[in-house]
Design goal:
single chain, 457 residues, mainly beta, Immunoglobulin-like, seven-stranded mixed β-sheet, 4 helices, 30% strand, binds copper (II) ion
């Protein structure tokens, strides 16, 4: 589906590519491309300038550029945006060009770039180009390297991209507020030689976090650690698209962390290596195999693996509180608590009363409880076998045979070959457990009170 803005964007690129733009137009500001869709957009292959293999921004897009006498020009607009965090929940954030995070900027090592930044926020801002080698006056630290950009003004940054790799951009003015509101984006610098560390699929996204009270739309900006929405590119599962790969592809995933805590990002079914940081590409002799990479605050990691195993592989933060949505913090543990009797009494007072969490919290994933407007269940998302019981920083890497080069469409649930799935035991019934013998002088007597009320000695 092509949105109106998407169409205008593409039309704009075509016009620029065919040289139809009037020369005088290049003296003005580049057109502002805006995205109104939160789904993953197809990679944007370059229409001019040095060749490169574009990235795919998870639930995001790449900012189109124009060439102006050999300089690559981009136009970012800092502005309030509405971001759909998952179907059923919108957040009022600040971002760039219609979305949070902002669009990914892609250019090539050696390129001269000119980045126009228009401030449509109600307060000052600036942009820092995290990780880039650049003249000090282009570093974007308000007060230190430049005055802050006042509302309504457009500033210009210009520098030459001195090394390839993965970088980020974010404000360096009222940073706590502006980053808590979603202002950030990725800046990918491709190598001059397109075959250097060539991969078949090159994904990227940022880790970010929000504190939005159930039923409200705007993040609390003073929260330090107790965020309730842990996101990949300002999306929570099941709103995060799968990373779709062709069997046998060499895959890179670039992940930057702009939250206030570290995230151990874990991939199922494959080992990977960290091949890059925001400091550059790692030397091959410095790499080792991992299935989880911890990404600290303000860091970025590029991981690479060969997609050799077909299937739907979970890919998530390993902090289990980060794979839940809109969680309350004051929920006591109810595991092992016997509600019987109490539930019937409460039901006479509150007809919809439900007992939750007494056998663990999986029940909540299955339940369709009435929720306040504009919030998400703590855990959600359904797979082909039932509720997945995950939210937040969770998605899947879906590996399939024979996909076309730029095919990133969700292929649906993986059809597991017969005889290769976990199954219910159909043999003899459960035998009595065999307990280890203890020496009599070390024997202790334990009294355990089980939830059912039986005492065991
Ligand atoms: Cu995490």
């Amino acid at each position: 589906m092509v949105s109106r803005r998407d169409f205008l964007m593409k039309a704009g690129i075509a016009a620029l590519g065919s040289g139809l733009v009037h020369k005088g137009a290049l003296a003005g500001l580049p057109e502002v491309a805006v995205m109104d869709d939160a789904t993953t957009q197809s990679p944007l292959h370059p229409h001019s300038g040095r060749p490169y293999h574009p990235v795919v921004t998870l639930n995001g897009w790449t900012l189109p550029f124009r060439m102006n006498h050999g300089v690559k020009e981009f136009h970012l607009v800092a502005e309030p945006v509405v971001r759909e965090m998952a179907p059923g929940m919108n957040a009022r954030l600040w971002g760039y060009n219609g979305q949070s995070p902002g669009p990914t900027i892609e250019a090539v090592e050696g390129d001269r770039v000119r980045l126009f930044v228009t401030n449509r926020l109600p307060e000052v801002t600036s942009i820092h180009w995290h990780g880039q080698r650049l003249p000090n006056g282009m570093d974007g630290v308000a007060g230190l390297t430049q005055p802050a950009i006042p509302p309504g003004k457009t500033w210009v940054y210009e520098f030459t991209l001195r090394r390839s790799g993965t970088f980020m951009y974010h404000p360096h003015a009222d940073e706590m507020t502006q980053m808590a509101m979603g202002m950030m984006g990725l800046f990918i610098v491709h190598p001059k030689n397109p075959d250097f560390m060539r991969v078949d699929r090159d994904f990227c996204f940022l880790l970010n976090a929000y504190d939005i009270d159930p039923g409200s739309y705007t993040p609390r900006v003073n929260t330090m650690l107790d965020f309730n929405l842990w996101t990949f590119n300002s999306r929570v599962f099941p709103g995060i698209d799968p990373l779709v790969c062709r069997l046998g592809d060499r895959v890179r995933i670039r992940i930057g962390n702009l939250t206030m805590t570290n995230h151990p990002i874990h991939l199922h079914g494959h080992e990977f290596e960290v091949t890059g940081t925001d400091g550059g590409w790692t030397r091959p002799e410095s790499r080792w195999p991992e299935v989880t990479a911890d990404i600290a605050v303000g860091q970025m990691r590029a991981i690479e693996f060969d997609a050799t195993e077909e299937g739907d592989w979970a890919f998530h933060c390993h902090k289990s509180h980060h794979t839940m949505n809109a969680m309350g913090h004051d929920v006591p543990s109810m595991i092992g608590v016997d509600h019987r009797g109490i539930a019937e009494k409460i039901s006479t007072l509150i007809p919809d009363y439900m007992v939750m969490g007494d056998r663990g919290m999986h029940d909540m994933a299955e339940m369709e409880m009435p929720l306040p407007d504009n919030t998400l269940p703590m855990m959600t998302g359904f797979g082909q076998f039932g509720p997945i019981g995950m939210g937040g920083m969770f998605t899947t890497v879906k590996i399939r045979k024979g996909l076309a080069r730029d095919d990133y469409k969700d292929p649906g649930g993986y059809r597991q070959p017969r005889g290769s799935s976990a199954r219910e035991w159909q043999g003899e019934p459960l035998p009595e457990p065999r307990r280890a013998e203890r020496a009599p002088d070390h024997a202790t007597t334990l009294t355990v009170r089980k939830p059912a009320g039986h005492d065991h000695h």
